[in-house]
Write a sequence for this structure.
């Protein structure tokens, strides 16, 4: 197929605008064909200077716009289920930002809808699977050189949380990345969650439990801990250390320029995900475009999105109850065997 893949982008906020720029200027083989956002001004700003894009307030109008062959969903999580089902009805391949659907019941409806189609159509935006450091860690663990993984120690820090960010979103939006990364790195399901709540930072909004300390148990007896702190005020830091029977490996230490002058040294710290994971997003979207043009889905899929939502939902219940909550997963349809 030599024709560029026409993409409808749903949601032109922080991520949507960045993906529009990426499809227009970074990625090969695709173009932005349509954008939908109820905030028309945002959509128009995001496509300024790009030719041949139609702007819509309704998702259905963007999906039905001329030239649309695929969809990138970057609207808020609660809008994802409707967008995915609308894309499936039209047979359109999708890259859907995480969380695929925040509630596990809605995520399962998406699994069932794709399973009814009998072919995979959607990829979920767990971009850490494309980050070069995570890719190296995965290859090292898979090689067996370090022996069986016993623990993952993870850190996930943001400078500040966006308006409206809730204590549940700390788990089902922020920690959804660690949930997917742990499932992928270890090749195991997460089976139970406990969430501890240190005293909240005085810099966090009054009603936000931040930081949180999340502990996952896995099907084969490993442990995964996550310090998540989304109002540090100082930087975006994502780290992961795998402790295995014959060694350990750690990623995410700042590799930015270090400047030494008389009397001291200074190391830059990324301020947000768009900087820290810029390369990962580029690789993710390029891989999605390449696979879509070949009629394939190669990245994390709808089952991964559902599993992450089910684990996160157990995490939210653990946060609320203060106890250990077992993860309940539905039976996996044959499509995802
Ligand atoms: N992979 C990653 O690292 C990141 C992923 N995200 C995810 O990206 C998605 C969007 O997040 P942000 O861009 O930060 O939010 P945002 O609030 O900046 O932008 C969302 C946009 O969607 C629009 N919108 C609302 N309802 C809509 C609908 N039904 N259809 C189309 N557009 C609609 C809003 O008007 C707004 O312009 C979320 O799922 C979020 O979890 C966000 C940040 C980083
Ligand atoms: O996905 C993301 C945001 O939605 C979330 O709010 C942040 O905590 C994460 O660091 C970022 O990667």
């Amino acid at each position: 197929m030599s024709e560029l893949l026409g993409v409808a982008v749903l949601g032109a906020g922080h991520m949507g605008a960045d993906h529009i720029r990426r499809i227009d200027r970074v990625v090969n083989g695709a173009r932005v064909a349509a954008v939908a956002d109820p905030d028309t001004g945002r959509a128009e700003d995001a496509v300024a200077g790009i030719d041949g894009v139609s702007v819509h307030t309704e998702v259905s109008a963007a999906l039905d716009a001329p030239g649309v062959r695929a969809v990138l969903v970057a609207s808020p999580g609660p809008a994802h289920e409707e967008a995915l089902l609308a894309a499936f009805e039209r047979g359109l391949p999708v890259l859907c930002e995480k969380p695929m659907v925040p509630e596990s019941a809605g995520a399962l409806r998406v699994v069932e809808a794709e399973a009814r189609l009998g072919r995979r159509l959607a990829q979920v935006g767990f971009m850490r699977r494309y980050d070069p450091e995570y890719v190296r860690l995965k290859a090292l663990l898979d090689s067996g050189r370090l022996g069986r993984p016993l623990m993952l120690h993870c850190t996930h820090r943001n400078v500040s949380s966006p308006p409206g960010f809730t204590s549940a979103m700390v788990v089902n939006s922020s920690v959804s990345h660690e949930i997917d990364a742990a499932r992928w790195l270890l090749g195991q399901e997460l089976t139970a969650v406990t969430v501890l709540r240190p005293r909240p930072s005085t810099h966090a909004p009054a009603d936000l439990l931040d930081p949180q300390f999340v502990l996952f148990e896995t099907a084969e007896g490993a442990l995964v801990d996550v310090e998540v702190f989304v109002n540090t005020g100082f930087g975006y830091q994502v780290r992961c250390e795998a402790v295995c029977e014959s060694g350990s490996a750690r990623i995410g230490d700042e590799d930015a320029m270090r400047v030494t002058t008389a009397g001291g040294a200074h190391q830059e710290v990324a301020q947000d995900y768009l900087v820290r994971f810029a390369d990962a997003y580029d690789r993710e979207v390029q891989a999605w475009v390449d696979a879509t043009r070949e009629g394939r889905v190669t990245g994390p899929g709808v089952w991964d999105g559902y599993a992450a939502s089910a684990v996160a939902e157990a995490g939210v219940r653990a946060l609320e109850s203060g106890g250990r909550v077992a993860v309940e997963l539905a039976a996996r349809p044959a499509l995802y065997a």
Remarks:
- The chain has a mean pLDDT of 97.
- The CA atoms of residues 151 and 243 lie 5 Å apart.
- Residues 158, 173-174, 177, 230, 273 surround ISE (ligand 2) (CB under 6 Å).
- The domain at 129-276+309-336 is CATH 3.30.360.10 (Dihydrodipicolinate Reductase; domain 2).
